[in-house]
Design a protein that fits this description.
The chain is an alpha+beta fold. The strands form 5 sheets. Strands 5-4-3-6-2-1-7-8 form an 8-stranded mixed beta sheet. Strands 9-10-13-11-12 form a 5-stranded mixed beta sheet. β20 (about 510-515) and β21 (about 520-525) form a beta hairpin. The radius of gyration is 31 Å and the shape is globular.
Length: about 625
């Protein structure tokens, strides 16, 4: 039998390795930026075209490479960072595996220009699919310039898995931000399709944070510092009142290397306990300096997962540092947890619902009923007594009110307590005779044939809005209401790219937005049925919710947008509704194609049948 095990060719081995090291354009950017930092550069420029699919170029003024080193850098496991196994436990550089350049050269067309200080000429090397096409002397600036074109051109399956330009650019910006945060003493510039996205001067960490995320971060920064034995923690945290609904700007660095750690994130959240509303996340940029011997970074090729030899001590120290920072800056729980932080006021949401009811918009569901909607409506009718079938909800309510009033007139309440013996207790006048009422401003309770129906007002309204927005996106029918005073919203580059990519869908919903400056947009119109809400808060809330959904779910973009907008504009628990508003809400819910569940799968209503109620009293 012939031998079947054979050694893979270097080009194929490099392509396999590239699957771990270079997963998308952002992975290549990360590796090249870290190489520039290791080379001692104090000025780095990144140029991106077509979200990195067409071209990526990183230029630095580091120490450069000799002709031999430039050629060797393209070999697998060729590195200047380590020489023996013991070096793995004293690593201070960003890279050390010697896989990045070889992996990128295997799946792209790469050109390297590099020159060391003191040399008259540098070296140019052109590589395609691990094959060196050209090597020659070249006049160039001191340092290294690496240009990668047509990533995954020879691996079509991998290229097809890349996401849209907006998504890929968002990942690139995230990697750029991480490296820029870790090295505030280095000047960074980022250009996207010949437009300047970032120009960050060398400076302090606080200046770098403001430069990356915007001027509004200046007022929310609280410095953080703690030190013991061989561990030092420092950086900045955000004040609780600036917390967001998405896990956005949260960064941990260990010896200047960005890491992901749910364990350490929990320690930060623990320190904020009692200061944040539910579902909110604070900003933080925290650096941990520790002897490399106590850390294992050789866990994953991306080097974002590491292990500490004493995680509990790190956890306790991070928690203590954050708590001390919060105390030092006199940050106390000043947030009204019952307030609606998504809209400018609860009243605006209520105005939207009142206008919906006033305009009888819910009647549109009746005029164009689908078979599914007609079935839902019939089932809704059957919930009531036979004598009421055929009447509209507004007609049924007076009937049920009359029934209850008649019952109450013949009912005398008697209590055994002497305190109540002289004066019989009766319901308050405004509550007498109601067949539909609100419980704790959260649930709508309705008497039905089989017992008691309980409707979650927020979940129900989210279902109504979700189906309406999905219809707008499908048919491009969303009406827009022009704002009296257009508002300008400043976004980070990643969010700006995302918004520009979704501009057509947002227009279908009724948003009228235009780019206004480098990373700013101007809001000229909102969906007409939102009401008099704060345009900026609605828009920022929509983007935050969209990103949150995207990180937690794998759903089409249209559905994500409809979910996000419904979530942010629905009436909230705690909003008081009139009887007319409750009636309109119920009518619209049971005109939906799927009234049982909100878009996120939450149950919208539940029926407590009479038998179960009786069991509570017959035990």
């Amino acid at each position: 039998m012939p031998d079947i095990i054979r050694l893979l060719p270097d080009s194929l081995a490099n392509q396999i390795a590239a699957g771990e090291v270079v997963q998308r354009p952002a992975s290549a950017i990360k590796e090249l930026l870290e190489n520039s930092i290791d080379a001692g550069a104090d000025e780095i420029t990144v140029i991106i075209k077509d979200a990195g699919k067409t071209m990526m170029q990183i230029m630095d003024n580091g120490k450069g490479m000799s002709e031999t080193d430039a050629r060797m850098s393209l070999e697998r496991h060729a590195t200047s960072k380590i020489t023996k196994s013991e070096d793995l436990f004293s690593i201070r550089t960003m890279g050390f595996r010697g896989e990045a350049l070889a992996s990128m050269a295997a799946v792209a067309q790469m050109e390297i220009k590099t020159r060391q200080e003191g040399e008259e000429l540098g070296t140019l090397i052109a590589v395609e699919a691990s094959e060196i096409k050209r090597q020659e002397p070249v006049a160039c600036e001191k340092g290294t310039s690496i240009c990668i074109k047509n990533l995954f051109y020879n691996v079509p399956a991998r290229r097809n898995f890349l996401k849209s330009n907006g998504v890929e650019m968002k990942h690139i910006v995230e990697e750029f931000q991480r490296v820029a945060l870790a090295n505030p003493e280095v000047k960074f510039m980022l250009y996207q399709n010949d437009l300047e996205t970032y120009s960050l001067a060398a400076g302090k960490l606080s200046q770098r944070i403001v430069g990356l995320f915007g001027k509004n971060y200046r007022e929310q920064l609280a410095s953080c510092s703690e030190e013991m034995a061989e561990i030092k923690i420092y950086g900045y945290i955000g004040k609780p009142e600036f917390a967001k609904k998405t896990r956005g700007e949260q960064f941990f660095f260990v010896n200047n290397r960005f890491i992901k750690s749910n364990y350490l994130n929990h320690s930060v959240m623990n320190a904020y306990e009692g200061l944040l509303p539910d579902g909110s996340f604070p900003f933080y940029v925290l650096f941990i300096e520790i002897d490399p011997v106590h850390v294992d970074i050789n866990v994953h090729p991306t080097k974002t997962e590491i292990k500490f030899d004493d995680e509990r001590t790190i956890y306790a120290l991070v928690r203590a540092a954050v708590k001390q920072a919060l105390a030092t800056h006199n940050i106390t729980p000043t947030i009204d947890f019952q307030a609606d932080i998504n809209l400018s006021s609860k009243l605006s949401g209520m105005n939207s619902l009142r206008e919906t009811i006033k305009d009888k918009n819910y009647a549109q569901f009746r005029t164009t009923e689908t078979p599914q909607q007609k079935s839902n409506k019939d089932n809704w009718e059957k919930l009531f007594d036979q004598e009421h079938i055929g009447k509209s909800p507004s007609q049924r309510i007076p009937d049920r009110q009359a029934d209850i009033r008649e019952t109450q007139e013949n009912l005398t309440l008697t209590f055994g307590s002497k305190v109540n013996a002289e004066t019989p207790v009766e319901p308050e006048a405004e509550e007498r005779g109601k067949a539909m009422f609100q419980l704790h401003n959260q649930y709508i309770l309705i008497q039905v044939k089989s017992g008691l129906m309980m409707v979650d007002q927020q979940a129900a309204h989210e279902r109504i809005l979700f189906e309406k927005y999905i219809n707008h996106l499908k048919n491009n029918t969303g009406a827009s209401q022009q704002t009296l005073f257009p508002q300008t919203v400043s976004l980070n580059p990643g969010d700006f790219s995302l918004v520009m990519e979704m501009q057509e869908e947002m227009s279908a919903l009724g948003f009228k937005i235009e780019p206004f400056g480098k990373n700013d947009i101007i809001i000229k119109g909102l969906p007409a049925d939102i009401g008099n809400a704060n345009e900026k808060e609605i828009f920022e809330g929509l983007i935050d919710q969209f990103k949150r959904n995207k990180s937690e779910l794998s759903i089409p973009r249209n559905e994500n947008l409809a979910r996000a907008l419904a979530r942010r504009t629905a009436i909230k628990r705690g909003a008081r509704l009139s009887e007319e508003e409750m009636t309109g809400l119920i009518d619209q819910l049971f005109a939906c194609s799927n009234p049982n569940y909100a878009a996120n799968g939450q149950t919208t209503f539940h029926i407590l049948d009479l038998n179960r109620i009786e069991n509570y009293f017959n035990k």
